[in-house]
Amino acid sequence: MSWSSYGTYLVFVVLVVLAPGPDTAVTLKNTLSGGFRGGLMALSGIFVGNIVQGTAVALGLGALIVRSQPVFLTLRWAGVVYLCYLGVQALRSAVRGNYDALDSHGAKASSFRRWREGFLSNVTNPKVIALFLSVLPLFLVPGQTDTWDALLLAYTVGVLGAVWLLVLLFLAHRVRTWLQRRKVRRTLDGVTGGALIGFGIALAAEA
Protein backbone atom coordinates (compact mmCIF):
# COMPACT_ATOMS: atom_id res chain seq x y z
CA MET A 1 0.00 0.00 0.00
CA SER A 2 1.38 3.42 -0.98
CA TRP A 3 1.74 6.31 1.47
CA SER A 4 -0.49 8.49 -0.70
CA SER A 5 -3.28 5.91 -0.55
CA TYR A 6 -2.88 5.56 3.21
CA GLY A 7 -2.89 9.36 3.57
CA THR A 8 -6.20 9.57 1.73
CA TYR A 9 -7.57 6.88 4.01
CA LEU A 10 -6.40 8.81 7.09
CA VAL A 11 -8.28 11.93 5.98
CA PHE A 12 -11.46 9.89 5.55
CA VAL A 13 -11.06 8.16 8.92
CA VAL A 14 -10.49 11.47 10.74
CA LEU A 15 -13.77 12.80 9.34
CA VAL A 16 -15.59 9.64 10.45
CA VAL A 17 -14.01 9.68 13.92
CA LEU A 18 -14.90 13.35 14.55
CA ALA A 19 -18.60 12.71 13.88
CA PRO A 20 -20.46 12.31 17.22
CA GLY A 21 -21.78 8.82 17.83
CA PRO A 22 -22.54 6.25 20.54
CA ASP A 23 -18.85 5.98 21.47
CA THR A 24 -18.72 9.69 22.32
CA ALA A 25 -21.93 9.53 24.35
CA VAL A 26 -20.84 6.45 26.33
CA THR A 27 -17.44 7.97 27.11
CA LEU A 28 -19.00 11.22 28.36
CA LYS A 29 -21.62 9.33 30.37
CA ASN A 30 -18.95 7.38 32.24
CA THR A 31 -16.76 10.46 32.66
CA LEU A 32 -19.62 12.33 34.33
CA SER A 33 -20.40 9.48 36.71
CA GLY A 34 -16.92 8.06 37.27
CA GLY A 35 -14.49 10.88 36.63
CA PHE A 36 -11.36 10.57 34.51
CA ARG A 37 -10.81 6.92 35.42
CA GLY A 38 -14.41 6.03 34.60
CA GLY A 39 -14.18 7.66 31.18
CA LEU A 40 -10.82 6.03 30.52
CA MET A 41 -12.16 2.56 31.27
CA ALA A 42 -15.14 3.09 28.94
CA LEU A 43 -12.76 4.40 26.27
CA SER A 44 -10.54 1.33 26.57
CA GLY A 45 -13.59 -0.93 26.17
CA ILE A 46 -14.61 0.97 23.03
CA PHE A 47 -11.07 0.62 21.67
CA VAL A 48 -11.07 -3.15 22.19
CA GLY A 49 -14.50 -3.36 20.54
CA ASN A 50 -13.18 -1.51 17.50
CA ILE A 51 -10.16 -3.80 17.32
CA VAL A 52 -12.35 -6.91 17.55
CA GLN A 53 -14.66 -5.74 14.76
CA GLY A 54 -11.78 -4.51 12.62
CA THR A 55 -9.99 -7.84 12.98
CA ALA A 56 -13.16 -9.72 12.06
CA VAL A 57 -13.55 -7.70 8.87
CA ALA A 58 -9.87 -7.94 7.91
CA LEU A 59 -9.95 -11.72 8.28
CA GLY A 60 -13.16 -12.06 6.30
CA LEU A 61 -15.48 -12.85 9.24
CA GLY A 62 -17.30 -9.52 8.98
CA ALA A 63 -18.69 -10.37 5.55
CA LEU A 64 -20.01 -13.69 6.89
CA ILE A 65 -21.80 -11.89 9.74
CA VAL A 66 -23.40 -9.38 7.38
CA ARG A 67 -24.51 -12.11 4.96
CA SER A 68 -26.05 -14.18 7.75
CA GLN A 69 -29.29 -12.28 8.37
CA PRO A 70 -30.17 -14.02 11.68
CA VAL A 71 -26.74 -13.21 13.15
CA PHE A 72 -26.71 -9.66 11.79
CA LEU A 73 -30.24 -8.93 13.02
CA THR A 74 -29.48 -10.39 16.44
CA LEU A 75 -26.40 -8.22 16.70
CA ARG A 76 -28.31 -5.14 15.57
CA TRP A 77 -31.18 -5.58 18.03
CA ALA A 78 -28.76 -6.32 20.85
CA GLY A 79 -27.14 -2.99 20.04
CA VAL A 80 -30.52 -1.22 19.96
CA VAL A 81 -31.53 -2.59 23.36
CA TYR A 82 -28.17 -1.82 24.97
CA LEU A 83 -27.96 1.76 23.67
CA CYS A 84 -31.52 2.46 24.84
CA TYR A 85 -30.73 0.90 28.23
CA LEU A 86 -27.73 3.20 28.68
CA GLY A 87 -29.80 6.17 27.50
CA VAL A 88 -32.57 5.47 30.02
CA GLN A 89 -29.97 5.26 32.79
CA ALA A 90 -28.66 8.71 31.88
CA LEU A 91 -32.17 10.19 31.65
CA ARG A 92 -33.05 8.77 35.08
CA SER A 93 -30.00 10.49 36.50
CA ALA A 94 -31.06 13.77 34.87
CA VAL A 95 -34.61 13.52 36.24
CA ARG A 96 -33.60 12.57 39.78
CA GLY A 97 -30.66 14.96 40.02
CA ASN A 98 -29.52 13.32 43.26
CA TYR A 99 -25.84 13.42 42.39
CA ASP A 100 -24.51 13.04 45.92
CA ALA A 101 -25.97 9.52 46.07
CA LEU A 102 -25.04 8.84 42.44
CA ASP A 103 -21.44 9.92 42.98
CA SER A 104 -21.18 7.70 46.04
CA HIS A 105 -22.56 4.76 44.06
CA GLY A 106 -20.49 5.66 41.00
CA ALA A 107 -17.30 5.69 43.03
CA LYS A 108 -18.02 2.07 43.98
CA ALA A 109 -18.73 1.00 40.41
CA SER A 110 -16.12 -1.44 39.19
CA SER A 111 -13.71 -0.49 36.47
CA PHE A 112 -14.75 -3.63 34.62
CA ARG A 113 -18.38 -2.47 34.52
CA ARG A 114 -17.36 0.76 32.82
CA TRP A 115 -15.05 -1.11 30.45
CA ARG A 116 -17.90 -3.49 29.69
CA GLU A 117 -20.26 -0.60 28.86
CA GLY A 118 -17.79 0.76 26.34
CA PHE A 119 -17.02 -2.64 24.84
CA LEU A 120 -20.63 -3.80 24.51
CA SER A 121 -21.90 -0.48 23.12
CA ASN A 122 -19.31 -0.74 20.36
CA VAL A 123 -19.20 -4.46 19.59
CA THR A 124 -23.01 -4.75 19.39
CA ASN A 125 -23.17 -1.94 16.84
CA PRO A 126 -23.20 -3.62 13.39
CA LYS A 127 -22.77 -0.21 11.74
CA VAL A 128 -19.08 -0.45 12.68
CA ILE A 129 -18.69 -3.68 10.71
CA ALA A 130 -20.73 -2.22 7.85
CA LEU A 131 -18.43 0.81 7.80
CA PHE A 132 -15.33 -1.37 7.61
CA LEU A 133 -16.84 -3.50 4.84
CA SER A 134 -17.82 -0.49 2.74
CA VAL A 135 -14.58 1.48 3.15
CA LEU A 136 -11.72 -1.04 3.34
CA PRO A 137 -12.31 -2.53 -0.16
CA LEU A 138 -11.81 0.95 -1.65
CA PHE A 139 -8.19 0.93 -0.44
CA LEU A 140 -7.36 -2.75 -0.88
CA VAL A 141 -6.20 -3.85 -4.32
CA PRO A 142 -6.38 -7.60 -5.06
CA GLY A 143 -2.91 -8.96 -5.78
CA GLN A 144 -1.18 -5.88 -4.35
CA THR A 145 -2.45 -5.71 -0.78
CA ASP A 146 -2.78 -8.48 1.77
CA THR A 147 -4.31 -9.27 5.16
CA TRP A 148 -1.68 -7.17 6.96
CA ASP A 149 -2.73 -4.13 4.94
CA ALA A 150 -6.36 -4.79 5.85
CA LEU A 151 -5.45 -5.07 9.53
CA LEU A 152 -3.48 -1.83 9.33
CA LEU A 153 -6.48 0.01 7.89
CA ALA A 154 -8.85 -1.52 10.43
CA TYR A 155 -6.65 -0.79 13.43
CA THR A 156 -6.11 2.79 12.25
CA VAL A 157 -9.80 3.43 12.88
CA GLY A 158 -9.52 2.05 16.42
CA VAL A 159 -6.39 4.02 17.26
CA LEU A 160 -7.60 7.35 15.86
CA GLY A 161 -10.99 6.85 17.51
CA ALA A 162 -9.29 6.25 20.87
CA VAL A 163 -7.08 9.33 20.44
CA TRP A 164 -10.10 11.54 19.72
CA LEU A 165 -12.03 10.17 22.71
CA LEU A 166 -8.94 10.70 24.87
CA VAL A 167 -8.85 14.35 23.81
CA LEU A 168 -12.52 14.72 24.79
CA LEU A 169 -11.79 12.98 28.08
CA PHE A 170 -8.96 15.39 28.92
CA LEU A 171 -11.13 18.38 28.01
CA ALA A 172 -13.94 17.12 30.24
CA HIS A 173 -11.44 16.55 33.04
CA ARG A 174 -10.10 20.10 32.72
CA VAL A 175 -13.58 21.59 33.21
CA ARG A 176 -14.69 18.99 35.77
CA THR A 177 -15.49 21.67 38.38
CA TRP A 178 -17.99 23.29 36.02
CA LEU A 179 -19.34 19.91 34.97
CA GLN A 180 -20.03 19.01 38.61
CA ARG A 181 -22.64 21.77 38.93
CA ARG A 182 -26.04 20.19 39.37
CA LYS A 183 -27.78 22.05 36.55
CA VAL A 184 -24.94 21.37 34.15
CA ARG A 185 -24.84 17.67 34.99
CA ARG A 186 -28.59 17.32 34.63
CA THR A 187 -28.44 19.00 31.24
CA LEU A 188 -25.54 16.85 30.05
CA ASP A 189 -27.15 13.67 31.34
CA GLY A 190 -30.37 14.61 29.54
CA VAL A 191 -28.56 15.33 26.29
CA THR A 192 -26.41 12.20 26.55
CA GLY A 193 -29.39 10.00 27.39
CA GLY A 194 -31.44 11.43 24.55
CA ALA A 195 -28.53 10.95 22.14
CA LEU A 196 -28.03 7.30 23.14
CA ILE A 197 -31.72 6.52 22.73
CA GLY A 198 -31.70 8.40 19.42
CA PHE A 199 -28.78 6.30 18.19
CA GLY A 200 -30.64 3.18 19.27
CA ILE A 201 -33.81 4.22 17.44
CA ALA A 202 -31.84 5.09 14.30
CA LEU A 203 -30.18 1.68 14.41
CA ALA A 204 -33.57 -0.02 14.81
CA ALA A 205 -35.11 1.96 11.94
CA GLU A 206 -32.50 0.82 9.41
CA ALA A 207 -33.73 -1.68 6.87
Question: How would you portray this structure in words?
Answer:
The chain has 207 residues and is mostly helical. Helix content is 87%, strand content 0%. The chain contains ten helices and no strands. It has helices at 3-18, 22-58, 61-67, 69-96, 99-108, 111-123, 126-139, 147-174, 176-179, 182-205. The longest helix has 37 residues, at 22-58. The two termini are 34 Å apart. The mean pLDDT is 81.
Query: What proportion of the residues form beta strands (DSSP E)?
Result: under 5%
Radius of gyration: 18 Å
Total number of beta strands: 0
Summing up helix and strand content along with how strands pair, one would put the structural category as mainly alpha
Characterize the largest beta sheet: strand count, sense, and whether it forms a barrel: none
Number of DSSP helices?
10
Helix content, binned percent: over 70%
Q: Mean of the pLDDT scores?
A: 81
| Overall shape | globular
Termini Cα gap = 34 Å
Task: Report the uncertain regions.
Answer: none
- N-to-C order of helices and strands: HHHHHHHHHH
Summarize the structure in short.
The chain has 207 residues and is mostly helical. Helix content is 87%, strand content 0%.
Write the layout of secondary structure elements.
Layout: H1 3-18, H2 22-58, H3 61-67, H4 69-96, H5 99-108, H6 111-123, H7 126-139, H8 147-174, H9 176-179, H10 182-205
Helix pairs in contact: 1-8, 2-6, 2-7, 2-8, 2-10, 4-6, 4-10
Task: List descriptors.
mainly alpha; 207 residues; 87% helix; 0% strand; globular
